[in-house]
Each structure stands twice: as C-alpha cells, then as structure tokens.
Design brief:
Order of helices and strands of chain B: HEEEEEEHHHHEHEEHEEHEE
Structural class of chain A: alpha/beta
Largest sheet of chain A: 5 strands, parallel
Helix content of chain A: 40-55%
Number of helices of chain A: 8
Distance between the termini of chain A: 26 Å
Strand order of the largest sheet of chain A: 2-1-3-4-5
Strand order of the largest sheet of chain B: 1-3-2-6-5-4
Order of helices and strands of chain A: EHEHEHEHEHEEEEHEHHEE
Oligomer: heterodimer
Number of helices of chain B: 8
Radius of gyration of chain A: 18 Å
Shape of chain B: rod-shaped
Largest interface: A-B, 22 and 29 residues
Strand content of chain B: 15-25%
Number of strands of chain B: 13
Radius of gyration of chain B: 51 Å
Strand content of chain A: 15-25%
C-alpha cells in the first residue's frame, strides 16, 4: 500500500514515514504543496496523508486541485487546526478523514487502512479469498486456517493483488506499491516475492499474465 | 460623601435663584427707601405749608400750646411753631421744647433723644412764624423694609417647592447618563460592542465616545491575545505530534538502529518544543511592554562580543564560521537584557540557516546619529518578496530544512521597536545569504 505523506515538519514527517513503514506502507514524503501536487499527478497512491499548513501551496489547495483533476485517492488531513469549522471545511473540500495533531500513530495507521479498504468498496476489514485470509491490521495471513509467515514485502504484494482481485497488476504497479521514494528497488524483486508467495501458499493462487503482470482471479461465490 | 451631579446642580440652581431673589429684594428696598423718602419729604413740606397757612387765623395770643396726641403715627411725627422772637408758640405732643433744627428753612436731619428725625422748616407768608415739621426716619425705614420684606415672603414657600422641582427636573435631565450607566452595567463581560451613540444627548456623547474607544482598544488587545494563545497552542501541537509519533516509532521499532534514531528524534522534538515555549514566553513578556526604562546605555560592541562567544560552540558544532568584526565601543540607549535577546535570536538564525562550512559575521558600526548592528550569513537568504512577511509570527523560511520556532524575527522586530530601531533584511554580501541590519538611534 503506497501512501503519499505531505508534511513540512521534518521531525514529524520523519516519524510518520517511519511509523507507516512499520505498518507495511510504502511512503513517499514531500515537504511542500507544489511537490505534493506533482507527485499526485505523476503517481497513483492508495492514500494521502496531508498536512494543511504547507509552504508554497496550502494543503487545502492541493486537495482542491486533486479533486478538480478527478483524483479520487482517499485523503486524510493531518492538522493542528481542530475547530469544528476547520474540520467541516476540510471534509467539504474533499478530504475523507481528519486527524488532529498530536495523534496516535496506531490510529493513523488504522484510519489509513480503513480509508483504503473503503476505497476498494470492501466492507470487511479482513480480506478473504477461498482458503486465504489476510488481516491488514494484524498484518497476518492464514492459508486453510494455518498462519503463514510472510515478509513485509511479500505481504504487501499479496495485499495489493487481493485488493485488485480480478484485475491484472503490472510489475511496475506492484513495485510502486512496495517502495517509497529513495528506497532501492532490486530488479526481479516482484518476481521473487511472487515466487515466495506461491511456495508459501498455493502455486495456483497467483496467475502470471504473460507480458502484462500478475493477478489473483476473483473467487466464484 | 460621593460627589453627586444631581446634588451639585440642585445647590447651584437653588443658590442662583436665591441670590437673584435676594438681590431683587435688596434693590427694591433701596429703591423703595429712596422713593418713600422723596414722597414723604414732599409730604413734610406740604404739612409745613398747611400749618403755616392755618397760623394766620388760629394763633391769637402768645401762648405755648401742645396739641394732644391722637393717632398711631403721631409719636413719629412732630411739629413746632416759633415766632420771630424765638418763642415756641405751638408744638405737637411728640415734639421737644427745643428747636427741631437750627436751620431756618429747608430740609435737615436731627437727632433727638437718640432718634433720627427728618425735619422741614419754613416761614409763613408774612414771615411771622417759623414752622418746623419733623418725622422719624424709623418710619421711612419701616415702610421700605415692609415693601422689600413682602417681596421675600413667597420665598419661604417657594424655595422648598423649587428645590423639589429642581431635584426632579435634574433627575429627569440626567436620565440619559443613567441610561448609559445602566447599559454598561448590564453588559456581559465579553460584550465589547460599541454603545449606541445615536440616542445619547450631545453632553453625554464625549463619554460614550470615550467608552467606545476604550471598548475598541480592549477588543483589539483581547483579540490579539486570543489569537496569540491559539497560534501558540497550534504551533506547539506539531512538535508534540512529532515527539509522540517518534516515540511510538521507537516502541514499534524492529531493530536497535531504528529505535535509536527514533529516540534521538524524540529528544530533538522535545528540544524544539522547549525552545518554542521559551520564545513564546519571551514574546508574551514583550507584548505588554510599551516603553523602556529611560537613562540606560548599552555598549552594542560588548554585547555583540558576548553574544558571539555564547553562540560560538553551536556554530562550531555545525562547522559554521562565526566572527565579529573589529569595532569600537558603541553605546546606545536601551535595555541590556532585551538587546542580548535580540542579538541571540539574530545569531541563532544565522547559524541555523547557514549550511555547514558557511560563514556568519556580526558587526557594530557607529555612523552619525546611529549605531548599525549587522548580522550577515551566506545561507539560503530570504527571497525579496517574502522579506516583509518574515517578521510575522510563526513564519518560517521555506526550503531551509531547518526547524526554527518561526518567532525569532518577530522577537527581533519587537525589541527593535521598543528601542525605536529599524530592522531591514537584505541580500548578504556577494549576492547570497541574508544581511540583517538593525539601526539604533545613538541618542534617546
């Protein structure tokens, strides 16, 4: 799950980035509004954590422009302004959630998971697919009732494929979801993670669509 | 006793009425006395004339005769008839046996038995008899006093009635004032809206105006305080959020390195919150101050030396070369503690925003009528269009990668204002970095 973090405060931004990475998110971090705007145009994020008091372009303006460009990415506003009119203005400008500083890191992680889940039109917090169960909050996976031990990256690949069940995800799309800016992407990494997943779960779970990418087919219910 | 406008007006008005009335009575008394005097003098002459005319027939022999007293005023009226030889022929009972006055003809005053008399003397037609007619002055006084006194009588009833009416009228007249007082008294403590001046009479307008001006000033200062508190609270939230987040990252760290880094950030965040709090306190203390204690002089050069010495270790830790230009003592009127705060903020900023390996320099220069304190650095500087807003509270320079409190330049400006010094921001030497110049007047 890839999140764009827009926060101009160095210490706080660093903390959120580290905290979200601990929860398995890939994080791109920008420190001003203009950079956030171009990041939003260039890449597809699963969610955005947006500070409002930003240099160069205010968070509200970033949000308004993203919505005007028909970008439906879930946006969680993070701000020190906590009055009801502030919250209303933020939500009405197109934000999906609102968190006031100082906040709890666990709550931020949970709210982001909820936002991403709802954006995928999914009501259940736990993803189920046949004998597969993936719990994003607990970061646990079980196959046929047995817990399966996955690395963070393997978990992220499986999570992305499950959220997009029935759709083909390209190698590049998967890589985007795995790595934040500045993180080194090993070549063949996605192939390696898919290989591990097939070995740890079931060989037939993830299908390769030659020349396009990977997919987990929808389960006939 | 509390001064009362109503009582004051009552006393003044009543006093004025009483004085006017008494003046009228006094004037009437003197006027009446004069008129009565003239009238009675004429009367006296007529009486003398009548007596003289009667003498032709009635005095037949030389005998002294006293006419018996008959009427109320007769004791106060007297006459005598003398013949040419100086014999008293006729007199009223009230008249003495000596001459009423020595003057043979015309008006005169005399004192008889300690009483003052008005006398008129004349000879009859044939100049056989001298007629003298007298009248006690007391009689005239009584008449004049009675006329003036009658004028004073209504005062006994009128004065209390007048006092009551004035009391009520003044009360009614002062009602708008009481109205303003009631409106102010009824107000909720946070209601600082201006009073309605439209209904106030002209005399109360200055008061309403002054009150409204006071309300406006209070509102401004309350608003400023409220905004400052709100801003301060918001500004503290970010470093607190950073501390909390970094602490939670440390708790969830998967290895020692990550935990260590996060904990270092917790400390850095706490330092920042502490520094922000300290700067807020400086500003809060400065805000209500409007003037400096007069008469103190501070040597800026010595202060700059001290400031550079204090900041030297922070500069060295960042590999910033901090220097002080050589200069002579430069005394300016001012507060040493505040000027040290100003200098420390400028030096902190210079070191903070100068990249490692950069330079910062302080210089103190005396020019005619002023002393210039200049701090230059070769950091990123402030773009010209952002220089004006750089003095606003909580304003940080963008893209500096440094976390200041955003209050440093506000504090500098505030202290400079108190010293009537001007602060200007310019591009540093060689076209880069920042040059902050504070121009202190060298005379108070």
């Amino acid at each position: 799950m890839k999140v764009l973090l827009v926060e101009d405060d160095r210490l706080l931004g660093d903390g959120i980035r580290a905290g979200l990475m601990q929860a398995g998110f890939a994080v791109d971090w920008t420190q001003d509004g203009r950079a956030a705007e171009s990041a939003l145009t260039a890449e597809a994020y699963d969610a955005v954590v947006l500070d409002l008091g930003l240099p160069r372009l205010s968070g509200m303006e970033v949000l308004a422009r993203a919505r005007a460009a028909r970008n439906a990415v879930p946006v969680l506003i993070l701000t020190a302004r906590d009055t009801v009119p502030d919250r209303i203005a933020g939500l009405d400008a197109g934000a999906d959630d609102y968190l006031v500083k100082p906040f709890d890191l666990g709550e931020l992680q949970a709210r982001l998971r909820a936002l991403i889940r709802r954006a995928g039109h999914q009501a259940e917090p736990v993803l189920e697919h046949g004998a597969l169960r993936l719990d994003p909050a607990a970061r646990s996976v079980s196959w046929q009732g047995r817990p399966v031990d996955l690395s963070a990256r393997e978990f992220a690949v499986l999570h992305a494929l499950l959220l997009g069940a029935g759709r083909v995800l390209s190698k590049a799309q998967l890589e985007e979801k795995l790595y934040g800016w500045g993180e080194e992407i090993e070549s063949n990494a996605v192939e390696v993670f898919v290989h591990h997943l097939r070995r740890k779960l079931a060989p037939e779970l993830i299908r390769t669509v030659r020349g396009v990418g990977y997919m987990i087919p929808r389960v006939a219910e | 006793m509390t001064p009362s406008l109503r009582r004051r007006l009552l006393v003044l008005l009543l006093g004025t009425v009483l004085a006017a009335w008494l003046a009228t009575a006094l004037f009437t008394y003197f006027d009446a006395r004069h008129e009565i005097g003239e009238m009675l003098d004429t009367h006296l002459a007529q009486s003398a004339g009548l007596i003289a005319a009667q003498l032709e027939h009635e005095i037949e022999d030389d005998r002294e005769e006293a006419v018996p007293r008959q009427y109320k005023y007769e004791r106060k009226i007297a006459f005598q008839v003398w013949d040419r030889k100086g014999r008293l022929l006729l007199r009223s009972a009230s008249a003495p046996e000596s001459r009423l006055q020595s003057r043979p003809e015309g008006y005169g005053d005399a004192v008889i038995d300690g009483k003052r008399w008005r006398i008129f003397s004349r000879w009859d037609e044939r100049r056989h008899y001298l007629v003298q007619v007298g009248e006690r002055y007391e009689f005239r006084e009584e008449l004049a006093q009675s006329v003036a006194g009658h004028l004073l009588h209504p005062l006994y009833f009128a004065l209390p009635a007048l006092a009551l009416l004035i009391w009520l009228a003044v009360g009614a007249g002062l009602a708008p004032l009481a109205g303003v007082a009631r409106e102010v008294a009824r107000r909720a403590p946070d209601n600082l809206a201006p009073l309605d001046a439209g209904r106030s009479p002209r005399e109360v307008l200055p008061l309403v105006g002054a009150l409204n001006a006071l309300f406006a000033r209070l509102k401004d200062s309350l608003e400023q305080e409220r905004r400052f508190t709100a801003d301060a609270a918001h500004e503290l939230r970010t470093p607190l959020a950073a501390v909390k987040t970094q602490a939670q990252v440390a708790l969830g760290a998967r290895d020692e390195a990550e935990r260590g880094r996060a904990l270092e950030n917790v400390v850095a965040g706490a330092d920042r919150a502490a520094r922000l709090t300290e700067q807020l306190l400086v500003l809060a203390r400065l805000d209500p101050q409007t003037a400096l204690a007069p008469g103190q002089r501070v040597d800026l050069q010595a202060l700059a030396e001290q400031g550079v010495a204090e900041t030297a270790s922070a500069a060295a830790a960042k590999s910033v070369e901090l220097g002080l230009a050589a200069g002579a003592a430069a005394p300016v009127p001012g507060d040493a503690v505040l000027l040290a705060v100003l200098l420390r903020n400028l030096l902190d900023n210079a070191v903070r925003y100068t990249p490692p390996g950069g330079e910062a320099e302080v210089s103190v220069q005396s020019v005619p009528d002023a002393v210039l304190l200049t701090v230059t650095d070769n950091g990123p500087g402030i773009p010209p269009d952002e220089r004006a807003s750089a003095f606003e509270r909580f304003r940080r320079v963008l893209g500096s990668g440094e976390e200041g409190s955003g209050l440093g330049l506000s504090i500098v400006r505030r202290i400079a204002d108190l010293h009537r010094a001007a602060v200007s921001l310019e591009t540093g030497p060689g076209g880069r970095g920042l040059k902050v110049e504070v121009r202190f007047p060298s005379r108070p």
